[in-house]
């Protein structure tokens, strides 16, 4: 019986001991202390003419005055500070944030119950370097298989059609365009819109691009074919003579959308037979050349490329 009583006393004693320790611990945490805390640095607002190098300082040590609860929180959670690089100054060939600028930026991001006492440095050197910038065009790489009698109506639309690249002049001065990854589509019979990654050139480790993907959009239309009889025009024949061709017109096959074919006429084509190109070995034959065709067609060709002729004196 005495043994059970002793056990209860021990348990009560331990409970009071734990409660006393917790009370003491919480009391101490509520008091203010001066101690050091490390903050990770996030660089923001990089000026357009500068790039951030790979050798920058990633953390800063501070001396703070705050409650023990706050220091305990710092121990358990990652702490980050954003630094505005638009406040950096250029001095003696280097970019830096002064101690005053550092303190102001850090203090703005600390809670009201935290006082910044000191920093581990009186200035922060930032690994920045001057860069040039230019806009370059985007060129799509397409591998599109259409259903029968369907075709791409016009050129694809790229958004954005140009991207900004920033880097050392030695890297970007000869760069004029950038290609997309290959867009492969099969059995296409309707309009399409796809986001496609850009393929960045090699050996440009110090350059950055404004975007890493673009949107490629294309209009797809059903097409048909129509044959037009176009008059043949003979040029550069001898003065005082006339040239008659047999026949005097030629068939031209035009491939276009149905709506386009409705507005195309023979006046939109021009076929020339240049007498100067006559080769005696060809006999009385002139070769034909299509010198004019309507816009926004998807294929135009002569069904005959030569014609017989006679030369008559006026």
Automatic annotation (TrEMBL):
Source organism: Flagellimonas pacifica
InterPro entries membership: c-di-AMP_regulator, YbbR
Pfam families membership: YbbR (PF07949)
Superkingdom to which the source organism belongs: Bacteria
Protein name per UniProt: YbbR-like protein
């Amino acid at each position: 019986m005495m043994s059970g009583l002793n056990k209860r006393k021990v348990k009560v004693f331990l409970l009071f001991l734990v409660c006393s320790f917790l009370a003491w611990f919480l009391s101490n945490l509520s008091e203010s202390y001066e101690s050091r805390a490390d903050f990770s640095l996030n660089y923001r607002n990089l000026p357009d003419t500068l790039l951030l190098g790979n050798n920058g300082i990633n953390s800063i040590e501070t001396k703070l005055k705050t409650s023990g609860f706050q220091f305990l929180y710092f121990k358990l959670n990652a702490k980050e500070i954003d630094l505005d690089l638009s406040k950096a100054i250029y001095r003696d060939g280097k970019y830096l944030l002064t101690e005053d600028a550092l303190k102001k930026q850090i203090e703005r991001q600390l809670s009201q119950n935290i006082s910044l006492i000191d920093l581990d440095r009186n200035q922060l050197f930032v690994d920045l370097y001057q860069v040039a910038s230019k806009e370059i065009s985007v060129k799509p790489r397409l591998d599109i298989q259409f259903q029968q009698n369907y075709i791409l109506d016009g050129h694809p639309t790229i958004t954005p059609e140009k991207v900004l690249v920033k880097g050392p002049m030695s890297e970007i001065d000869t760069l004029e365009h950038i290609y997309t990854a290959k867009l492969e589509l099969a059995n296409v019979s309707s309009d399409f819109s796809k986001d496609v990654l850009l393929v960045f050139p090699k050996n440009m480790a110090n350059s950055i691009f404004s975007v890493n993907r673009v949107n490629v959009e294309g209009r797809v239309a059903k097409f048909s074919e129509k044959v037009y009889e176009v008059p043949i025009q003979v040029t550069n024949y001898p003065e005082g003579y006339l040239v008659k061709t047999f026949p005097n017109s030629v068939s031209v096959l035009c491939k276009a959308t149905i709506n386009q074919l409705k507005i195309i006429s023979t006046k939109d084509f021009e076929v020339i037979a240049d007498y100067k190109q006559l080769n005696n070995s060809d006999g009385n034959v002139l070769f034909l050349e299509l010198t004019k065709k309507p816009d926004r067609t998807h294929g135009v060709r002569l069904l005959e490329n030569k014609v017989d002729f006679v030369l008559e004196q006026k």
